[in-house]
Amino acid sequence: MADPTHDTATPLAPPPRRTRSPAGGLALLLALIALVATGYLWYALAYQTHTLGAPLGRRLQSEQSALTALKARFARLAGSERATAKALRALARRPAARIAAHGQRFRIRAAQDLLLMANDELLFQHDVPLALLALHKADDQIRRAGDPRLLPVRSAIARETLKLKALRRWRVSTRALSLVALAHAVRHWPLVVATTFHPAVVRAQPAPEPFWHRAVFGVWHDFLALIRIRKASHNERALLSPKREAFVRANTTLRLYTAEYALLEYRPAVMRANLLATERWIGRYFDTKTPAVKAAQAEIARLVAHGLPRVPDISGSLHLLQRLTHA
Questions:
Q1: Given phi > 0 = left and psi -120 to 50 = alpha, else beta, which region is 19?
Q2: Residues 184-243: tens digit of each pLDDT
Q3: What's CA 312's distance to the chain center, in Å?
Q4: For the chain, what are the domain ranges?
């Protein structure tokens, strides 16, 4: 039997040798690079945290202080708002009589000012409608004041209102327009013409036959025609030259305009003087027999007769109100 250990068969071949691959080295290199990058990132982050941490902390601290200041300001505003609300509640609880007293004094003072305005407008401007309006407003203020002591003042205002209404019915504007119409019509009024006398009528006598008788009679007839003796009931009006005629018309027109201005300004003496002068000029230089001149004379005579009404005194209510308020 043969020994198995001494086998004469072909021996086994050795195992194949392993070859080194480059992938392992590349993986090792990448791992080293990743480690270095991680270390650098950690170092960078640690450095930035160290360098930027202090400014961020200071900024955060400043923001917190600003927030604290805003909270304190808000607290002060809330406190002032509560104080204002408290004051308003206290004002609302104030007695109504005290507030009414302030309003009453204000209305009385306004009534005094309105009465003073009415007196000024009537005395200096002669504006009756504005004076009436001021009296009405003053009466309304006294009525709203609600003081029974001021009832006499309202009575005085009512009497003064009636006086002004009666003065307003005088119609100043209508009379002023009539004067303006007369001034415009002056240029159309005919002037007076000197009276033309007819020659004296001599009774015809039978002429004598002789020549010398006829000559003497003719001379005597002409002499009687040159000399006239008569009685005149009025002064003779002289003929006017063209320049004198223009002057008469312009002066008459100016007189009428001056009277109209005096009427509007409430100057009775000036208006009366100009109207009388106009009346004299019309009777002297214009033909009073024409209808236009007659109508003008009648209108001027009516204005002179009526004149201007006397301005009523409306200061009684003002003095009475001042006396009652200061009492």
A1: beta
A2: 999 999 887 654 444 445 455 554 556 666 777 777 777 777 766 666 555 555 566 777
A3: 28
A4: 61-91, 96-169+313-326, 172-201+210-226+238-306
